[in-house]
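Section 3.1: Structural characterization of target chains.
Under the original work plan, the team committed to producing a structural model for every single-chain target entering the pipeline before any wet-lab resources were allocated. The record below documents one such target. The sequence was received from the expression subgroup and is listed exactly as submitted; it comprises 306 residues.
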Amino acid sequence: MAVSRIGYISLYVTDLEAARHHYLNVVGLRETDGAGRLYLQAADNQDHHCLILTQAPRAGLDHVAFKVGEVEDLAEARAVLAARGVPVRDVPAGDVLGAGAAIAFRLPSGQEMRLLHHLDKIGYASGMRNPNPVPPHGKPGARVTHLDHLLLAGERPADTAQFLIDVLDFNLSEQVLAPDGSVIAAFTTCGHTMHDLAIAPGPNGHLHHIAFGLESRSDVIGAVDIMKEAGTTLMEYGPSRHGVSGVTTIYFFDPAGNRNEVYNGAYQAGGVPGLIPPIVWQAQEFPRGAFYYESVVPESFFAETT
């Protein structure tokens, strides 16, 4: 089947108005609808939304949706999942504003994943007729271009990674191995970027972070200035650089405690499962893989999830 790219992420937040301010004026998304849930989109995507925020008593992941290339891929995915004994739930069109029918199921690590084909098109933020090539400089928030990936937590990361590879035709781009050869963390892709969905140690059902792309490394530095001007006190780490993926990065939190990342510089993946062997990081080298400049992983980095 053709799982083509991440469609959107749906998050729980504890204060919808505080979250609106954060994702509009700090992250730099645009609001596309606010009926009950808050729907947000990044500048370089025509879909109705890339992020949904729902007020709830707790923070964390509601679900993540990936797009498939053809409507028929949904039936194929259902059959493959059923053959593996994975329960599948139908999600009718309109359950999520602007989204067509989907199928929903649980990953081995407990998070809900959906597959869908249709998201309404609303056009680029810069317009669809004779647009300017860059957003206006007065636009609030960081100059994010797109929703890029998410990292999930799981008690057995290898199981979720293998599920993505075997069942949904994801490709493995990088992995972290323990001395006995077992998988500590895995980075998988369904397209041409080095990771769309990653999995690392942590409690089942939890979210580690969601990540947005920036056009340049200078925009990463600019994002720090924007965060400080916005008065955020929720910066966690960076600017730094990952050894894994090689990107320049910043980590920070939304007001509910959901970890965010903005970054630039991920390399292009092969696009075909198994075409290129994955990069391997040994566990003793992972501090350099996580934060290349410092070669130290902050104690809270994997301990704090939502």
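Helices lie at 16-27, 72-83, 157-168, 217-229, 286-290, 300-303.
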